[in-house]
Amino acid sequence: MGKWNYGVVLDAGSSGTRVHIYKWLKSDQARKKESGLHKLPEVSTDKKWTKKIHPGISTFGSHPHDVGPDHLDKLFHHALKYVPKDEVANTPLFLLATAGMRILPDLQRKSVLKEVCAYARKTTKFQLPDCDLHVQVIPGETEGLYGWITANYLLGGFDDPEGHDHGKNHHTYGFLDMGGASAQIAFAPNATEAEKHANDLTLLRLRTLDGAPLEYKVFVTTWLGFGVNQARQRYVLKLLESSTDAKEYPDPCLPDDAVIMVNDEGKVIESGSGKKGHKLVGTGVFSECLTSTFPLLEKEKACLDEPCLINGQHTPAIDFDVNHFVGVSEYYHTTHEIFKMAAKDDEDYDFKKYQKAVNDFCSKSWKDIEKGIKSKTWGKVDEETAQEVCFKSSWLINVLHDGIGVPRVGLEDLNSANKHNVTKVKVGGKHGPKKGFLNPFQAVNKINDVEVSWTLGKMVLYAASEVPPNATSDLAVGFGANVPGIPSDFQVPGGSHLPYLDQAESEWHDRLFSENSRRIPGFLIFTLIVLMIGYFACGRERRRAARQKLGGVFGRGGGAIRNPGGSLLQRRRKGLFPTKLFGRGATQSYERVLEDGEAANDFELGSFISDDDDHSESSEGSARLGRSSGWATPQIKTETGPPTFDSDVVAQGSGLGLAPPSVFANAIDRGGLMSRTDSRERVARSRAGSPKRAKFGAVEE
Q1: For 491, which DSSP code?
Q2: Would you list the domain boundaries of the chain?
Q3: Starting from the edge strand earliest in sequence, which strands make up the sheet with 625-626, in order?
Q4: What are the boundaries of the region Disordered (predicted)?
Q5: Which of 187, 271, 299, 359 is 20 to 30 A from residue 486's alpha carbon, by CA?
């Protein structure tokens, strides 16, 4: 066992799935190495440990059995390249799905998640003790909480509260995330707001290396439909509704003279597809674009629980003197992909500068923008990005300043009370200089060269749960309702840790029968039934051949002995199944193999209709085979003196003309010949004269 713990998180989004690998020192190793133990485990990753593939797992809703071989297999293979082999079985695996899986029908969503878990257990040895917890669709609020943990972990607010004092005994940062479908906000309100809105907060409990609990009360909410793509779709539909019979629709959120086609649902139609739609023609007036996108905030909706920000959803008042926010995803890409900040990651977000840069770009003619794309004026920017950036910028500005209420840096004077914040971190790439988080908002992609991903927050929470609690507190790590103790909805970071000792003995069961061990008896019974049906359906000849093979493989003894008359007494092997289930007697029996001579011509058994019946050549002089059925075997006396048969059985044998008494007795003395008769009513008939052979002989022979 090494000194490192590992964890694997699969971020299953709408467009694809990205695998992240993390590692941290085991608790005992960390306690030896770290001088100050009142800090969280140090979770690290590497750029090459991350891999993303397309499309998302939600596309497998109608055929979930393909999600393993066609999708997960590549991700698992990548993870297994970097997690040491002897640590795989101790490494927790999580697949946490977001927007794409949330909109799947319930049955399809459950089927995909079930198949994900089954495939992971069947093909890997990763720790997966609880599928409901390790493989799930997480709500937007949980995604936002994990992002909040990531931001504060990377910025250092957890481990160094004094160095991150924002005033009013506040040392954490707010978190903003915006994707294509939704947007999230997470922050710890100031003390006054936290007390006023205690029922609206989420209790988060971490654990430091010294085993002490670390608790925070965080407000988290998500705005569905307020991601950039769905907001754009709502905007286009409003534009089409404004004039139902127009041939062209002027769009101030497109660069001047840019043209795109959209369908009735407001989605862009790809050029060259031949599909008909509605033509949008750009006017490039950014001020009008800002005005047109403002109603999409839906601030006019009734607020049932004051205060509210967007869409009538309750949010505690934000104190921007102490709440400084970092924005990721679209907040970063929309401010850094095209505009001046793309070349200067160290530049703060300044509303006045940013709005001017957007206005200058969007007022350009589309022909000039196309030339700039070809000459890479804005780096790796394609036409689609250039067409979308004007709307995205207007939406971001409206959400930030009119929706959330972030002060407009560059236009509005900030309260000097927050100037004492001297937080220093590296933002952006490796060459980004250290800077202070003095402003109420900062767009980031990386902090201290680590990507700001909510998956890191998930793994920090899990790593904290692996630390043994100290003697004064054993409260579980996780999150839930803001009530004392362990609330009913409290969610722990993962299932019970199951140290890998030796799973070789049980591996066959896991691979064959997946999760349910109760399937084993049913499977064995089903197999036995199939074998029995096959046995009785294969015909007498195949049954006989099978019995002979089984007797030869599993039997014991065997061989032949020769009697004085020159014939052989072949001992029939007692096989693996010596019971009457396969037509065999339980006692040891013999077969008589006849050779040339008079005795061979004289000795012949009568016909006996049975599944065990053997056929042979009917011409005289040929070798004939005598068999015993095991049903009426003469009983050998075991008392002292020469062996003899019961008198009634001997009488039967001599009365049937099987052989002269002297020959019969002679055979008994040497080999214990067993007569194939079991009652006086069975009359001996020659094989050639048997009515059964006359009717079926041609077929049987």
Answers
A1: B
A2: 1-138, 139-224+302-486, 535-700
A3: 560-562, 568-571, 590-593, 625-626
A4: 606-645, 670-701
A5: 187
Asked if omega into 493 is within 30° of 0 (cis), the reply is no
* 118 marked as part of a ligand binding site: no
Residues known to be catalytic: 143
CA distance 566 to 131: 74
pLDDT-derived band of residue 306, with 50, 70 and 90 as boundaries?
very high
Helix (H) or strand (E) holding 11: strand 4-12
Half-sphere exposure of 635 (CA within 13 A, CB side): 6
Fill in the amino acid letter for 150: T
Top-ranked range on mean pLDDT: pick from 253-262, 470-479, 493-502: 253-262
Taking only the tens place, the pLDDT of each residue in 404-436 is 999 997 776 555 434 433 344 444 433 333 444
What Cα–Cα distance (Å) separates residue 40 from each residue in 46, 209, 212?
Answer: 19, 6, 10
285 with 361: CB under 8 angstroms?
no
The answer to whether 128 and 116 have CB atoms below 8 angstroms apart is no
The average pLDDT across 87-110 equals: 94
How many CA atoms lie less than 13 Å away from 627 in the CB half-sphere?
19
pLDDT digits (tens, 9 = 90+) for 549-590: 666 544 444 444 444 444 444 444 444 444 444 344 444 443
Q: Is 182 annotated as a binding residue?
A: yes
- Between the alpha carbon of residue 607 and those of residues 617, 618, 655, the distances in Å are 13, 12, 16
Report the C-alpha gap between 79 and 51 in whole angstroms. 9
Q: What is the DSSP string of 248-268?
A: EEEETTS-BT-EEEE-TTSPE
Burial (CB count within 10 angstroms: exposed 0-12, middle 13-18, buried 19+), residue 581:
exposed
Distance CA 437, CA 1 (A): 41
Q: Is residue 465 part of an annotated ligand binding site? A: no
* Residue 373 to residue 124: CA distance in whole angstroms: 45
Determine whether domain 1-138 maps to CATH 3.30.420.40. Answer: yes
Q: Match 């005005």 to its residue by tokens.
A: 291
Average pLDDT over residues 686-697: 39
pLDDT for position 544: 79
SS (H, E, C) 126-146: CECCCHHHHEEECCHHHHHHH
CB 5 within 8 Å of CB 24: yes
Q: How far is 592 from 600, CA to CA, in rounded Å?
A: 10
Q: What is the CA radius of gyration of the chain?
A: 42
Six-digit token pair at 488? 């009913």
Q: Find where tokens 């133990």 sit.
A: 37
Measured between alpha carbons, how far is 553 from 43 in angstroms, rounded to an integer? 60
Using N-to-C axis directions, what is the helix angle for 140-155 and 454-465, rounded to 10°? 80
Say how many residues make up the chain.
701
Residue whose entry in the numeric block shows the structure tokens 């092997």: 573
Tokens of residue 674, six digits: 């067993």
> What's the token pair of residue 605?
């058994």
684 is in an annotated binding site: no
Tell me the C-alpha distance between 611 and 543, whole Å: 9
657 is known to lie in a ligand binding site: no
Is residue 298 within 8 A of residue 304, CB to CB? The reply is no
Q: Is residue 629 a contact partner of residue 610, using CB atoms and an 8 Å limit? A: yes
Retrieve residue 338's tokens. Answer: 């095209």
**Residue 338: count of CB within 10 angstroms of its CB:** 24
Do β-strands 248-251 and 278-282 pair in parallel, antiparallel, or remain unpaired?
Answer: parallel
Confidence bin at 291 (pLDDT 50/70/90): very high
And the tokens for 147? 């992002």
Residue 428, C-beta contacts closer than 8 angstroms, at least 6 positions apart:
345, 346, 444, 445, 446
Q: Do domains 1-138 and 139-224+302-486 have the same CATH topology?
A: yes
**Cα–Cα distance, 133 to 617 (Å, whole number):** 72
Sort strands 248-251 and 268-269 into parallel, antiparallel or unpaired. Answer: unpaired
